[in-house]
Fold these 3 entries.
Entry 1:
Amino acid sequence: MVLRVLMRYLANNEQLIQRLADSYPMRRAAQLLVSAYYRGRTMAQEQKFIEMTPERFKRMMETFRQDVKKELEQAKEDLKRREGRK
């Protein structure tokens, strides 16, 4: 309860908010966030994720599932071979 009151006070303190907004860590965090957003959006456009239909998404997820399953089977076989050598 006390923490909630304290946080509400700090969130409504205009001077504190302004000082935080002017601080280097906050500005840098905002720059990184915007940079990540634009990079992600560009990658999504290049990969055509934005124009993805539900059918295409299902196919992509099925392929991903099959690849993961195959990799798990290969890892199990590798572990069995390593244990057999010992």
Entry 2:
Amino acid sequence: MVIPSTHVGPPKLIDFSCRIREPDSGSAACLLTFELEDKEGVSTNQEGNTSIVNMEMQPSTLTTLLEGLTRIRDQLSSVANKKQ
């Protein structure tokens, strides 16, 4: 499938990093950094425009995310086992 150059879509993930900030006086947090490449013509007229997005997740948010991903994995495994 060939996607025309005028296709509009989400930015391309180039790189990411994840690290844990140790608690000093508050609670620990997961720090995520994403490097994204905007598609041509979406946000600027320059090709290859990159941007850095930083996120901080508190432990409760990270726990909720991981629990959701675990449920999805379990559901997919269940479907895969039924087809065998």
Entry 3:
Amino acid sequence: MEKLAELILIPSPAMGHVAQMLELAKLLIYRNNQLSITVLIMKLPDYIDAVSGPFVDSVAASSTSNRLRFFQLPSPDPTPEWSSKTRGHFVYRLVQSQKSHIRELLTSQRPGNNKLSGFVVDMLCTPLMDVADEFGIPSYVFFTSPAAFLGLMLHFQFLEDERHQNVSDFKNSNSTTLLSFPSYAYSVPPSVLPMVLVDRDTWLGRFLDFARGYRKAKGIIINTLAELEIHALDAYNNNNNISRSEQDLLPPIYPIGPILNQSKSRSESEEEEITNWLDEQPPHSVVLICFGSQGSVPVDQVNEIAVTLEKCGCQFLWSLRRPPQSNNAQFPGEYTSYSEILPEGFLDRTEKKGKVVGWVPQLKVLSHEAIGGFMSHCGWNSILESIWCGVPIATWPLHSEQQVNAFQLVKEVGIAVEITLDYCERNKDQPMVTAEAIEKGIRELMEANSTVRDKAMEMKEKSQASVMQGGSSYLSLGKLIDEILKNTAL
């Protein structure tokens, strides 16, 4: 029997990243029957994140292909120092701790007997490329954020390493000074630069290392589509506004998105309750409020949102999640009682207009006819899902690269209205977003005949066409598979 080309996929354990990687695995084996995939799973402890582990288990249990296998890496005992810092720091330490386990797996107990043709590592797992290098295995990076942010990371790394520039100085720029970066079509205000790049400890401690890894990759797979990020991809591929010395160091890129989370993550009864409620609402009347798997807002901010929703009188579905309670590394969880956190009587007064829930099946909700707008943290998964469903966005970023994502959506892509562009949960001096600002954003978002809504529908058609046979992402994925199969023939 002919041997297959085997890939090892290594997702970050955070929910938004692992969901994309698992969908990528299914997409690869669907597109080519010469590929076999082993996904190496890192699980976060339940007290850190109670969502991603059960999700991965359900996906693994539902797999019916003998060309898609899952291998759970040992879970180390986190040190107190891991939990004393941020969620990102915790994940970074967890990833680094797996090097010896992956090395052992490749040496003695790797599943399957096929030729290993490549590693595909998540954008936050580039330290594991060192193990692939030891075994002479080519590494690819799966970038789960937009191409514009990839360009920004690589540009900052170039400035840091080649020009010896302290990139954290950008955050101290005059607030009225706009900054020009190659991967953005419009000049960027300093206030929307992501903390992960301009906070010196985070940049030097993690993200500079990630960016260096991207340059060493044999290729970078991006969950985006050419029609969505025309400027960023053109700047990357065609040397627009990039110096020759910087361009020479760039690996090929493969925009193959949108890759969407198609798997279930809740019980059928919980999904049915939400769907039944949406079925009773008029078309395009409901605003979905959801801040993602890692997103939550403090109590006083919850109150401002509640006041606004009551004043607006619009239909709403609100995914309200509890901020981390015990340590900095913990992910948000679920409230046991919403009445304890919401203004007194809010649930009774809004019973006919709205519904407050915990985790939501977001793609399924966004695809429902009743949804007319999405108040979002602007995580890239959520953006792609909203685009796929043609739902306009009101921006409320929280962390990671979300501030610059929000800027890109409003100023460049045109599918979003602004509630805030520069909200950052890590900023201790972050002012509260007022009820007035929230109301203004919701009213603009839910306007029936708006340019933003028209643009969202236009991008819906383009995103769905991109993955069809002959579409831009379909063709890019084919080129990636051809490249992987060449590795097998060597």
